[in-house]
Amino acid sequence: MSEEIKENCSCIFPKCPKCNIGYLLPFSYKEDVFEKWKCSNDQCKFTIEKR
Questions:
Q1: Cα–Cα 20 to 30 A to 47, which of 9, 16, 24, 38?
Q2: Beta carbons of 39 and 46 less than 8 angstroms apart
Q3: What pLDDT is attached to residue 41?
């Protein structure tokens, strides 16, 4: 069974627009800060990449 992610009203990260359960967490690669944002919900796997 999967764990339900509970809403955190004090979270500074935006809600995932796809699943509306997880939060978009920033990731950096080398010197490009916040190049990729991934949903914190393991079942969603939504990703946004900066281009």
A1: 9
A2: yes
A3: 94
